[in-house]
Amino acid sequence: MLQRLLASFCNIPSVRFAAIIDNIGNELMQTYSTKRQDVSFMDFGALLQTIDMSAKLCGMGDANQCWIESKNGTILLCALPDRKYIGILTDENPNLGRISYELDTKKEAIAQLI
């Protein structure tokens, strides 16, 4: 069930890769779209710590989502309970509204299944 929920993100046009990672960057589960490439969120631990620290320093509380956009695609990170994250990698021109909506609607179910 957890793998199926994670894989549903890859059914969204432009999504290439989705993973569940812990706070030090270890991938607990991953799934690829049909355009599989060798990508990984391993070693994202320092980035995740920077996101958390930045949100706290700015008085924002805990960070819920972070987007990193470039000309060739976007990385979205969505916080789950217990300091785990859903990471999504897209091609260029993703539908960020749809991806954000799917993250919001599925993150509680994913957290319960971990």
Write the layout of secondary structure elements.
Blueprint: H1 2-8, E1 15-22, E2 27-32, H2 45-57, E3 65-70, E4 73-80, E5 84-90, H3 96-113
Radius of gyration: 13 Å
Please, what is the CATH homologous superfamily?
A: Dynein light chain 2a, cytoplasmic
- Physical arrangement of strands within the biggest beta sheet: 2-1-5-4-3
* Proportion of residues in β-strands: 25-35%
Poorly predicted regions are none
* CATH architecture descriptor: 2-Layer Sandwich
CATH topology type:
Beta-Lactamase
Please state the average pLDDT score.
Answer: 87
Structural features:
globular, single chain, 31% strand, 3 helices, 5-stranded antiparallel sheet, alpha+beta, 114 residues, Beta-Lactamase, 5 strands
What does this 3D model show about the protein?
- The protein is 33% helix and 31% strand.
- The protein has one domain: Dynein light chain 2a, cytoplasmic (Beta-Lactamase), CATH 3.30.450.30.
- It is built from three helices and five strands; from the N terminus they run H-E-E-H-E-E-E-H.
- The relative contact order is 0.22.
- By secondary structure, the protein is an alpha+beta fold.
- The protein has a five-stranded antiparallel β-sheet with strand order 2-1-5-4-3, covered by helices on one side.
- The model has no long low-confidence stretch (mean pLDDT 87).
